[in-house]
Amino acid sequence: MDAELATATARQSQVDAVLARLFSLARKRAEPLGAAYVELWDRIEASTTGGKRFRPRMVFAAYSALGGDDFDAAAYVGAAFELLHTSLCLHDDVIDRDFTRRGAPNVAGAFRDRALAAGAEPATAEHHGVSAAVIAGDLALFNAYRLIDRSGAAGEMRARLLEVMDEALFASAAGELIDIDFTLRPAVPHVDDILSMERLKTAVYSFEGPLQAGAILAGAPDETVATLGEFGREIGIAYQLIDDVLGVFGTEEQTGKTTVGDLREGKRTVLIAYAASAPDWEGYSALFGDPALTDEGAATLRGHLVDSGARGFAEGLARYYVNRALARLVEPHIPAALRAELHPVADAVLGRVK
């Protein structure tokens, strides 16, 4: 276990070094263009810190278990998915009108506060902040693709890695659009519709893509790459189900965001879809989506989500998808080393709610 921890720490350090080099070079380029631009790059870099580097871990898990040995190349590919994640988070905060992440101002919040300090009106300052966040997300997205190029992959392998990255972004954008369209519906969507959205929005870029990229980089057969995508799809849906539970029942330290936010926003999740099907939902529906929801009101809603069985249903569904994911690993073309790498991933997904 100590050896595994040391290896994981070394791999994370390699990813951190790739990102540090990228931001160092970007700051040097930004200096002649003004202090505000340097600050923006500082804020983008800060947005990449504090996370668990989950997506690079998926790249390394597949790559190392399938015999890859150029870990510098894998670090660049892992860093690319981490930067893609940063980009999507920056834009997601704009969509959700969030000005904090992990208990501190995000890019939008930092530049909003900067404008307020300069004497701007609150509405103008907020627009300034979200505008900076959009620019930051664009920069992170563009550089995610550049990191694939800098990995050293060439020819057909480079083309396949870029296809995986493209599919991750393409699917995530579709999932995000479906998610915001849900808010226009007066009725809560069905569970299956929400699961489809969450697979597109999160599972593809967080699990399917990184696992497949690691396998492609290792030169794995097509059937192994395809099965890893299937594993990633199932485990990614489970991950998002648990994430939605934590968004209401977890802590800010776990999620990086307030646990009242999803309830105030009226976020459509499996928890809410199940609770809305209960006969007494009408007595609680006015609280859901109330932007002025108090902590007391949130506690009342949480109680209903437990009493109606919604929390138990969501956690049980997550276990179901984890088991579906593990079933993919029994295929004969999945080597034992890869099974050994991915079983702990499944345990970690479910362990987040213990």
From TrEMBL:
GO biological process: isoprenoid biosynthetic process
Record keywords, A-Z: Magnesium, Metal-binding, Transferase
GO MF, one annotated term: prenyltransferase activity
Cofactor: Mg(2+)
SUPFAM superfamilies in alphabetical order: Terpenoid synthases
Gene3D superfamilies cross-referenced by the UniProt entry: Farnesyl Diphosphate Synthase
Assigned protein family: Belongs to the FPP/GGPP synthase family.
Listed name of the protein: Geranylgeranyl pyrophosphate synthase
Provenance organism: Pseudolysinimonas yzui
